[in-house]
Amino acid sequence: MPERHAPLLALEGIDLGHGDQVVLPRLSLTLRPGERVALLGPSGAGKSTLLAALRARLGDDVAWCPQHHGLVPGLAVYHNIYMGRLAEHSALANLWNLVRPLREPWREIAELCEQLGIAELMRRPVGRLSGGQRQRTAIGRALYQRRRLFLGDEPVASVDPHQALRLLSLIDAQHDTCVIALHQRELALSHFDRVWGLRDGRLVLDAPADELSLDDLDALYPDAETPVRSDQQETPATRPLPCYRGRV
Ligand SMILES: Nc1ncnc2c1ncn2[C@@H]1O[C@H](COP(=O)(O)OP(=O)(O)OP(=O)(O)O)[C@@H](O)[C@H]1O
């Protein structure tokens, strides 16, 4: 990424957590405009905590796709996606839309659903969708917000690899910057510009994706490591955790 662009966000030694509980102490990182960042780390490493902090700081520029979707099971796919822009319409329009969908939002959301591969599900209650269909609905709601940045907490966790790529491409087409938590290491290297890796409350990886290997990403996950005996050669799975930083 060109260094000349002013960062969208720079954290310098900030404690992030929940209430009194610090999860990521003294965290420093920079997000630049135009960057696509993959956020990796084992369960409980603090990915959601970091995304929540980014969202709070970046405010209205952010399209947000949360981990547990936050969809309303009793409402149709159309209405759940419409909720992405609820605040832009009057209470009366929103009420009317519940009974009889408004023409323009219906057209826009139908187009979106077509791209997401859920066009035939627009009228179906979310409670009757598969996990992958729900995930696409949640992405649809975030896309419908039409923001500049996309923050996603495992938005492609429940879909197959082809669909994951397709969905990430849709996200890219509409947002110049994104930070997406995911567990698919190959995708992190092939699709993103930068990787942030969290482990043990630290950002231990902050490097361009094209400078990293799968072994580097494996080292983020405790299960990938086994103790090295003195008579053993060091292997990618046993070598010490890397700590790449794009800057000091
Ligand atoms: N609302 C909360 N209040 C207090 N502690 C929390 C809260 N949410 C998460 N935590 C704690 O913060 C730590 C990091 O959790 P977080 O959800 O950020 O991890 P994660 O990397 O997103 O995990 P996963 O991959 O399982 O979603 C965990 O120890 C978790 O128990």
From TrEMBL:
Top-level division of the source organism's lineage: Bacteria
GO molecular function: ATP binding; ATP hydrolysis activity; transmembrane transporter activity
Transmembrane segments annotated in the record for this chain: none
Domain spans labelled ABC transporter: 9-225
Record SUPFAM superfamilies: P-loop containing nucleoside triphosphate hydrolases
Organism the protein comes from: Halomonas eurihalina
Classification via PANTHER family: IMPORT ATP-BINDING PROTEIN, TRANSPORTER, PUTATIVE-RELATED
Name listed for the protein in its UniProt record: ATP-binding cassette domain-containing protein
InterPro entries: AAA+_ATPase (IPR003593), ABC_transporter-like_ATP-bd (IPR003439), ABC_transpr_LolD-like (IPR015854), P-loop_NTPase (IPR027417)
Region Disordered: start-end pairs: 225-248
Alphabetic keyword roster: ATP-binding, Nucleotide-binding
Pfam families: ABC_tran
Upper classification of the organism: Bacteria, Pseudomonadati, Pseudomonadota, Gammaproteobacteria, Oceanospirillales
Gene Ontology CC, one term: plasma membrane
